[in-house]
Write a structure and sequence with these properties.
CATH topology of the largest domain in chain A: Alpha-Beta Plaits
Number of helices of chain B: 9
Helix content of chain B: 25-40%
Structural class of chain A: mainly beta
Number of strands of chain A: 11
Number of strands of chain B: 9
CATH topology of the largest domain in chain B: Rossmann fold
Number of domains of chain B: 2
Number of domains of chain A: 2
CATH architecture of the largest domain in chain A: 2-Layer Sandwich
Radius of gyration of chain B: 19 Å
Distance between the termini of chain A: 47 Å
Order of helices and strands of chain B: HEHEHEHEHEHEHEEHEH
Oligomer: heterodimer
Shape of chain B: globular
Strand order of the largest sheet of chain A: 2-3-1-4-5
CATH superfamily of the largest domain in chain B: Aspartate/ornithine carbamoyltransferase
Shape of chain A: elongated
Helix content of chain A: under 10%
Strand content of chain A: 35-45%
CATH class of the largest domain in chain B: Alpha Beta
Strand order of the largest sheet of chain B: 7-6-5-8-9
Structural class of chain B: alpha/beta
Number of helices of chain A: 2
Radius of gyration of chain A: 17 Å
CATH architecture of the largest domain in chain B: 3-Layer(aba) Sandwich
Distance between the termini of chain B: 10 Å
């Protein structure tokens, strides 16, 4: 009998991003620009999770992130956990932390903001991390978690 | 303050405000001096504003400076699609300081980062208009002889009015007690009240001001605009409640002054104009001295 299981279970070296809320998986893909990767990437979504109900998971072969880069996903997936894999073993576990400043990534909620009308990279200071509140460096308006839109 | 752009009222410290007001008082005594001779000031008005532009231009002309610029964007390359970034890069080459008004919010912050010369924000959409705030502070200090421990009544559109928001932020450094008088739909936003809570300052909210008006040191009027209301009937119902009439000033303190950023439509009845407590036209004149103080201190002349 043929073995019908796909070979996705383990990676030799790389990063596993686990406990991503199912609704945020594709935002994580956008933020980390995973669509541009040439190495092996495996996604799973709407998997059962005791904590989140439904979760997503991403396995990235031969990819290791800098803290500054991976922390950007905390905006949409604050619950995400990272497993760093070397030679099939988990060598390190990490949680993500919302950075103090967000450059690019998020669109300003204010339609009259200069960043929504001219070619200007958005920039926010994070005024609240628990319930995310971002203050636009330019128009000074607050973008909060329910209206965060990923560029 | 040399070479420091003025984009938002929070860019300057309390001591810097006080220094500007001190200089403004000097310019009031002597508004014609030749100290800006040889300087070129650009006034870039991407949307029309008669009062603010004339006030800046009068301030610069009185000190012998030259002005280049435009009063509406239709006659500029912005109408051909040039970005603000490019316009500011170019104008930086031609001037020592840029005064800018632009309809987009955050435009002044961007300009200050792009320009090689300092930028003074003369209004970026509904966001900030710090020179208005400084002239308001000057008017308050001049009429009350102090900025400390005053009772300020803000009346009208407290939700969208950027002048009241900036004035609140600035005056919150001087132990002010605030009274907010507005229709329900146009109340002071929570963010500003939270700021006062954090500072431990007292404030009162009401929709009827006759009850407390005797305590006022300053009544700061703003216009209640019909287009702010979702319900036109509600506008009709409340519009007259926020019109100041002379008989409402009976029994108020002698030092009390009525301020308004202008233009006024009907929110201050013309019968108030002849009251010694009306101060809005002098307030506009103070704008010239305050802007002279801002420009010369940023250029490092004063």
């Amino acid at each position: 009998m043929k073995d019908k299981q796909l070979v996705v279970s383990a990676i030799k070296n790389g990063t596993v991003i686990d406990h991503v809320p199912a609704t945020a998986l594709f935002n994580v893909v956008t933020i980390l620009k995973l669509d541009k990767l040439e190495t092996m990437v495996t996604f799973g979504n709407n998997l059962g999770s005791k904590k989140l109900g439904k979760k997503g998971i991403i396995k990235l072969s031969e990819v290791f992130f800098k803290d500054d880069d991976i922390n950007k996903i905390a905006l949409v997936a604050p619950s995400a956990k990272l497993n760093i894999i070397r030679n099939y073993e988990v060598v390190e576990k990490k949680v993500v932390e919302v950075p103090d400043e967000i450059i690019g990534i998020v669109k300003c909620v204010n339609p009259k903001c200069i960043t929504n009308n001219q070619p200007v990279t958005t920039r926010f200071s994070v005024v609240s991390k628990k319930e995310i509140k971002l203050r636009c460096h330019y128009c000074e308006k607050i973008t909060n978690s329910e209206n965060i839109e990923i560029i | 303050m040399k070479n420091k752009s003025l984009v938002s009222i929070t860019d300057f410290t309390r001591d810097e405000y006080l220094r500007i007001l001190e200089l403004a008082a000097e310019f009031e005594k002597n508004p014609r001096q030749n100290i800006l001779s040889g300087y070129v000031i650009a006034t870039l008005f991407f949307e029309p504003s008669t009062r603010t532009r004339l006030s800046f231009e009068s301030a610069v002309s009185g000190l012998g400076g030259k002005i280049i610029g435009f009063s509406e964007s239709a006659s500029t390359s912005a109408s051909k699609g040039e970005t603000l970034y490019d316009t500011i890069k170019m104008v930086s080459n031609y001037s020592d300081l840029i005064v800018m008004r632009h309809p987009l919010e955050g435009s002044a912050r961007l300009a200050s980062e792009v320009a090689s010369v300092p930028v003074v924000n003369a209004g970026d959409g509904a966001n900030q208009h710090p020179t208005q705030t400084l002239l308001d502070l000057y008017s308050i200090q001049k009429t009350q002889k102090t900025l400390d421990n005053l009772k300020i009544f803000m009346v009208g559109d407290l939700k969208y009015g950027r002048t009241v928001h900036s004035l609140l932020m600035a005056m919150s450094q001087f132990n002010t007690t605030f009274f907010f008088i507005s229709p329900e739909e146009l109340k002071m936003p929570d963010g500003y009240k939270m700021h006062l809570d954090q500072k431990g300052l007292e404030y009162y909210e009401t929709n009827d001001f006759s009850e407390y008006v005797r305590e006022a040191d300053i009544i700061y009027m703003t216009r209640v605009q019909q287009e702010r209301f979702t319900d036109p009937i509600e506008y009709e119902r409340v519009k007259n409640a926020y019109v100041l009439r002379r008989n409402m000033l009976e029994g108020t303190k002698e030092n009390m002054k009525v301020l308004h950023p202008l233009p006024r439509v009907n929110e201050i009845h013309t019968d108030v104009d002849t009251s010694p407590q009306a101060y809005y036209f002098e307030q506009a004149l103070n704008g010239v001295f305050t802007r002279q103080a801002i420009i010369t201190s940023i250029l490092g002349i004063k």
